[in-house]
Amino acid sequence: MKKTRTIPAAVNSVRYRTVDSHLHALDFLQQTEGFAALADVMDEAGVEQAVVFGMPMAKQWDSTMPKAPSYYLSNDSRCYYYSGTDYILAELLKKQPAKIRKRFYPFCCGINGNDRMAATQLRRLLEMYPDFWCGIGELMSRHDDLTALTYGEAPHVNHPAFLEIFDLAAEYDLPVLVHHNITAQGNEEVLYLDELKEALAHNRDCRIIWAHAGISRRVEIQNLTKIVRDMLKKNKNLWVDISWVVYDYYVLDNFPNHYADNDTPEDWVRLIEDYPDRFMLGTDVVGCWDKYVQEVRKYDVLLEKLTPDTAGKLCRDNILAVMKKNGGTK
Length: 330
Prior knowledge:
Elements: E1 18-24, H1 35-45, E2 47-53, E3 57-59, E4 79-81, H2 84-94, H3 98-101, E5 104-108, H4 118-128, E6 135-140, H5 144-149, H6 160-172, E7 176-179, H7 193-202, E8 208-211, H8 224-234, E9 238-241, H9 245-251, H10 265-274, E10 279-280, H11 292-297, H12 300-303, H13 308-323
Parallel strand pairs: 1-2, 2-5, 5-6, 6-7, 7-8, 8-9, 9-10
Antiparallel strand pairs: 3-4
Helix pairs in contact: 4-6
């Protein structure tokens, strides 16, 4: 049986220049608390810039529900793909003063990964807002309850529509951030990893960021560090975003008696030190900023265990390198 580990308290001072690699400006109702308020909490958290995108799904407010949902798990009503998210994001960001606007790297995400028209729709968006988009994503492939609640076929990252998106991204030299779970909830057998392998092999010129290392709620896998290590070794066009629950449940091992993984935090430190250019940190906050500082500062526990050079790469350098950026955008 795994032993419960005591995690040291996070340090109090902001030590690293940070670029948040995973931030949803809009929630599942396509609402937001706004960029001005976001910039304020970023200052408080020591975050200079952020990769920002909308939400590719919208949560339906059914007539039987007395109040509007706030999250995809608020109730059992369905979700649907919402292409308007990119236009809302673009127009909101373009209206910000330059001092705020230059802090954000916008990605576009409002497509259905099962639709062979998806790449055409993204191309149209790239042409409508030239020199604006810095990447594509977060695109939803296999994603536990979210894709189960969304109308239509469950998306998978080796679908022909996804492969056409990767070709488009390579053409425009843009990275693609993809959420792709490697198994189903409650199943310890790896089911979907080969789909990601096929996607990576399809176009090696496409840089793919793997959101949450293939993990989400109730996704329980043994030896995740070995899986991630093998994927990084064999796929030079792959990067790993350790935001959201993979950090709490696997990297920190905060739920040792619940999750199937038998790695230790030290295993993750060794993995990251072995591949210091391939990992990045994000908050994965969704339209509301009340917990933003907390989501940034939780990484202090990990950063204190890494060499300063590696910590700096996770906090800032790696996401900028994947986007081929050296500073602000606009």
